[in-house]
Structures
1.
Amino acid sequence: MSVKRSWIIPIIVTVILVSSNLATMMVNSSTNSPSEIEKVSIKSMKKYPLMYLYYPPENNRVHLAQSSEQPKIILDAGHDQYYTPDRLSEFVSLISIFGDIVVNYDQITSEDLTGASLLIIPNPEGEFTPDEVSAIHAFLENGGSLYIMGTWHDYFDPQIANAITEKYGIVWDDVSVQDNTTYFTHPDYNAPYYPLVHVWANNSITREMGILENVKEIFFSGTNLRIVTPTDPSKVLEGPYPIGVGDDDTFVVFENGTSKLLDGDVIFFAAVKLVGGGKIFASGTTYVFAYDRVRLLDNRIFTLLTVGWTLNLTPEDSLIPLIESFSVSKENYILGDTGTVSVKIKNLANASKENVSINLLIPYFLEVVDSKVTVSRESGTYDITYVPGEMINFGTLAPLEIVTVSFTVKCVLGLKRDGFLGVQLYLKGSKIGESTISVSSSPAFDTAVSFDPFPLNLTLTNKTLLYVRVKNIATYTIRSIEVRIPEVPPDVSFNATEALISSLAPGEEKTVTFEVTTTSIGAYSIAVYIKTENGGEDVARAVLVATTTRIIVFDEGHYQFVYFTSQWMGDFIDLLLRHAPVLILKGTIPAPLLDPSVTAIYVLPIPQPSTGSPGDTTTPIMSDEEVRLIQQYLESGGSVLMMGNWYQYFWPDNPGGFNEITGKYGLKWIDGDVYDPVNYIDATYHVVAKTFAKNEIAKILTAGISQIEFAGTALIATNTSIATHYPVVIGNNESYVTDDQGNILARGKDVLMIVASIIAGKGKLLASGSVYAFSSRYYYKSNEPFIANVITWLLGIKQLDIEISGVPYQVNIGEDIVMRVKVTNKGVETLVGIQVAIDYSPGIINRNGTKTYSVGDLEPGEYAEIVWILSANAAGTYRITVNASASNLPSPTTKEIIVNYVKPRGKIPASGLIAVSVIIVLVVVFGALALYIRRFKKS
């Protein structure tokens, strides 16, 4: 019997516990429904219009491509060379008579060298990979040639060059060659480390080059070469031999400052011929080939002979007549102006050159006065009748002869045009040289167009005046000046479209006025045509912006990639449109737009060179005038948002690039890429930035933000007298930034991904190393709260933000809602006297007992939280409104949410559930007890 008792008691306890837990689970299930905060809240929609401006309407950018059947010459610029193609422009121009120059900006591959005759490597400061060395060796051993240059020890690593040339018996020293007695006595190069090379080794290669007969002396700045036994003698046909050597007191200086006299064993230049037909010329200097130094002493003749030798040219073929100089007294012409042109041709060879001629290139707006060209040469001076398109033949040039050609040009077309004035040099019917000068023409008058008032504020008036000023800048009277507006944009009307000025004396100016009316917000480009009877004609363009507020300009007129244009940044554009009209600018920047009274923010996503080539380091990104306008706008109090990219698709150092714009303020964009091996999504370059700087602006921009998705480069910020920089998004502990060669430039918190700057005390600049962060194609959705903060800061908005949490969309009757209200100052000023209040539909029970709380003051980036406990006893849909106000805010911030109170479906209320549970327990207990008693009686 005792056993049976011990069995029934646990069953009773278990039933009680199960019933109790069941009741608890059923009660809790109604309060744990998913939170659906603001499911039907009112969302701010865009309220301003989107505009487009094509300025100028025509695309005047012209790109020229040339091709020929000349030898292909590869110029390497992919190994950290200081001596870029720009710095070697004179050298490149000189040797271009031998072939087509192709610049290589990355690693050298076999494909790069296919079809090439010569590879030129100026002083390399980055190492060649084993694959590159193998490709170069294969190129050399199959008939290709190499022209390789070094420099003195501070900027030279011999092992880089030795990896290429030691195989063939030429090695490089880490020294500086000097001479205390025989050095260049030029005003700019007067020092022992500019020794003169005047001793030439007499060997088969030097004689083959023609050095002994044609070169007296050149100057030098660089390192010493040595001749050693080739590591693979089977590849060498002849040499290696020294070419230029030191005299008896030439010495070398090592990096530690010690020197050594080599007693005539200094080697400035060396060369070797290979079995497969390839040739190597090694120069201890790159310095003397840079800038205009190639013109000094006999450097130019030496260059032609040595480069010509690598291309298998004889000295007679290498030394040819050249255009020594080409000049014009005037480059900008108005109708009737004249200018004098002078061309000097020099035969560099110490031998006669037959059948030499020139062709003059005259733009259509200029003509040769009286069709007369004057030629001066050794045989005398004479005139030639110039016939457009016909060559001027000099016949045979004597050894070292100089021929001078001069003539006068006159502007005969009064239009704004650009062109080239040039001369082409021919030898035996083949063009061997060309030189051009940019020239332009203009009408005999100057024109200025402007609107007043500008911009047109439609809240005040729908009328503005277009002023067209015409000034005579010629020395004669111009007559019958017609001013005409041929095309009127839609939504715009003029009181007249034509006007006439009868005449203008020299220096006189007059202004005609047109009344313009519009009621539509927009940006319009107005073309004004001015035509005269005897002074030419012109087209001037004026930009009219009609709006009710300042606008935001989004620049996509600088070859931006499609993912970074308004097409793929639509979410960002929509966000901007909540604050102001947005103008999509296609083309160059019109000066009237970049005025803080007109434009609230100028947005510049990563611009590209017109070629779009990752290796293009020379094509201008923006014009000098555009750079000036952006800087002037910033310094006048404007706000600019600039977005960069990682190195493959970023051109910060191109002319008119980002560094030219911001370098003035101590802000430098790194041509690199940011990585994080710990905090990333999918790839280490898709960084999840979780670390923010601690300063007043970073606090504003990152208010309410926990992380930012980022892919791009980093910046270097140095405060200046005109700019103060505030890092905003910085690297996590594991983040780092590399350059395009993989060198790590910064780590951790030193990686500045996004920087805010104050320019001249009033302008604002937000520099983001990532354009991906703003693009709908990439990370905009994740970053929208941060981007909203950015726009708020750039616009200088006072903003109080409300976040509501803890309110389910649906709740059971009688249950409490714990509503958390977070108010954050996301603006740029301290908000004073903040109050937070709620209102609600009838039937809501407010257990707090008050609808209003006083928060006090919040500084930018600070927040406060308030909790209300609410409930309702009847089913229905209830609206809850939260208002947050501040004494220095013009209007309160409001948010509304909807909550539905419902009867439980198929569920017992909590009180009933407990009663049912108790009944179940009693039934089970008494049932078990009755069964026990019955069995007990039987027993």
2.
Amino acid sequence: MLRAAGWGAVLAGLLWGCLGVGAALEPTTPLADYGRQSWAVENGLPQNSVHALAQTKDGFLWLGTEAGLVRFDGVSFAVYDTTSTPALPSGDIRCLLTASDGSLWVGTGDGLVRMKDGAVTTFTTKEGLPANAVRSLSQGQHGDVLVSTESGEAAVQNGRVVPVLLEELQTVDPSLNPKFAVRLADGSLAQATASAVTLHLDKREIVFGVGRELPGTRVQALYADRERTLWIGTNGGLVRYAEGKLDKFPITDPLASASILSLFEDREGDLWAGTETGGLHILRDQRFRNIGMREGLSSDVTTTVMDDADGTLWVGTNGGGLNALHRSAGGGFAVKTYTVNQGLLSDVILSLAAAPDGDVWVGTADGLNLIRHGQVEAFTSADGLPDDFVRSLLVDADNSVWVGTRRGLAHWMHAPDGRQMTTYTQATGLGSDLVGAMARDSNGNLWIATLAGLSRLSDGKITNYTTANGLTSNVITALLPRPMGMVVIGSQDHGWVLWDGEKFSAPQSEELRSASIHAIVDDTGDHLWFATANGIARCDCTMTAECSHWMEFGLADGLRSRATATNSHPSAWRAKDGRLWFATPKGLVEVDPAHFPVNAIPPGVAVERFAVDDTDQALRAGEGGIKVAAGHNHFQFDYAGLSFVAPQKVRYRYMLEGFDHAWTEAGSRRVAYYTNIPPGRYTFRVQAANNDGLWNTQGAVLQFELRPHFYQTIWFYLLLTAMMAGLVVLLLRRRLQVAEREFKAVLGERNRIAREIHDTLAQGYVGISVQLEVLAELLRHGKTDAATKQLDVTRGHVREGLAEARQSIWALRSQDSGEKTLPVRLRRLTEQAGAHGVEASCSVYGAYRPLAPGTEQEILRVAQEAIHNVKKHAGAKHLEVRLEYAESEVALEVRDDGRGFDASESVDGQPGHYGLTGMRERAAATRGKLDVTSEPGTGTTVRLRVPAPKPAKE
């Protein structure tokens, strides 16, 4: 079936206009010189019949095959069919259309599909299509998609299928009917039928018929690129019409006989061809033209190259002799070869130089040759050369020749009696006898590269320079004179430096400082070109050592080899027509700087896959990005830079915002891994640079959120903080309460001790003091008997004071005694009171049950205070202590028959009297109730009731 780009290609071109488009293929380039690449089933295509081609706004290339829709990123294929996600109604893809809104329309054998942002919408006869088998697609002036099916035409407007008449189809462009037609960039129209293609020019028509001007028997595809070039695909090959000329591929080319089903030009200017059985092909502009034995050279192993005053290109080889190339009218070369059979001393050519008078000097491994008017002369060490191994040559304006060898430098000048030769060696001041490249700068100085640095010959004086003078290496391999006496100097493994007339300076880039330079040339612009150990390189360079935009070219750019010629001079050359030539082990390389295609289109960037713990995530995310459940650890991002000029040279950098602090330079790696990232919101960004280092700084973005476990949320941390704060407050309050209780206990004990000392020891000491004064008075008056009696009384007071002190000390240590129960300890107090002349008794009622140690202690202290008051103040004869364990309380009663006191006029709180106050404080500490009943002459009763836990039921 005939397939044409039509206005779909024009609209696609308008779409790319907002993104930037590259130039189309150079129409004057011979078809055989285009770079090409192909993919078939063995490379990942699901099927070798490619019926349709399109490129979407994101940069992906889409292929329609009989086994499904294929998305291509330059490296890998992704297939969509009836079993994929999203699924298509049929795997038979017949046509494709990229609409102005960025959507992709797919015509299949069983319905129409619209794909955009990962969503798929299907249209069939149920939605109003005349038939499910779609034949072609185009877009109307108002954005409507026009559909041609096997049963008629229809249009899709705002998501609805509406019928359309043939006259309405003509509103797209009346001149494009019949439909198999394209309009060239100059406005001329090309129309095709199955048997012919007609070009409608201003005042004439040109017809190309199959079987005559066109190969094959049927026209199947028609395409016009951005350079006014018309491409015609037939079932017998691909043909180009450009510059008024119809060109066919060489018969050995696969596209010369392939059945072409589809043609498409991507936004970078590459031309794609889908074939019936040969898969997918791409044609690219070649930056480099390779010339070898296939083009007529005597050997592919080229060593040195130069052109002479007549424009003849001279190419030396390693073993194949010398080739003289003359460019023919068709762009090829006529080659004449010189070998030992024509008089050369050796077929191994090491150096070349052209003299102003037209002579060509040839340095070989076995001596020096001169070619003059086609005649070959030979010179060796027998003629005065220091050595027969001639590594370099230089001819001055006076036709004198400088010859560099392994054993020194010779200057061969014309003299009246023949030739005069002067030799320079290490003994005469040369840096080394092994001479390499030579160059004369604009000031007339001769620079000589050696293995021991660089030598400069000026006015007969030799000056040597080494790393001690600023060179980066002593092994100098290349020299290039520049204006104003400057010289660019290349070295082995240490890049290059610039001599600015006074000093050497090197570029700052470490990449340039470590390169291995074999040869250096410049073009007519501001570029330096280098033959390096890694291929050919170019940089933008001014009159300083600063070098920007360093570009390296290798196999992906069309070179047959990354290696370049070494140890021969010159191995790179700028010809008089401006073209550059490089000698390599796999042929001669030609570069035309004036027509050197530079990829100015930043690559599209896409995240193709996002996997979490090896599980793919849907890339269509809602607001806020993709939600990832808590607990996942491994994250994988697969991305692609969508540049088809040289996909192998696309470079990447990525950053995970929220985790990374800087870009990660990934080189050509197309996957990024992250593990054990904390919960949060993240944005994965990836940028790509094309083969010429132009970055797409907008790149691709994927947002996702790794949800936290409940214990990783801010609310959990706030709750935990609040709980910790509450716990701290609780502990502080508890500690304050304990400290307060301890303080009250200490304060109570201090008050009790103060009371004890005041009411016992202090009172006793006062009494003893009075007795001692009386004793002293009696002795002064000589009343011995009375003094003796008084002394006995005083001793009694002392013994009584000591007993009171022991009692107080016992009271302080009673809490540490071995007594286990309150009744026992209370009975002990009562018995001690009986020793003071009081008849004392202690009674316990009810079943004993232990109380809290602090409660029993306070009850004991109240009883002790009451008994002490009875002994000291009551003058009682009888003391009765009663302890009763009731159901819900413990009652203590201390009763005496002493003198009593008026309870309404208590002395409690007066200076020196603190007994009742202490008892009330102790009662309050046990949450008990203290009652003191007393009247003068009737004794005193102290009652304490303390709450107590009820006895356990049996």
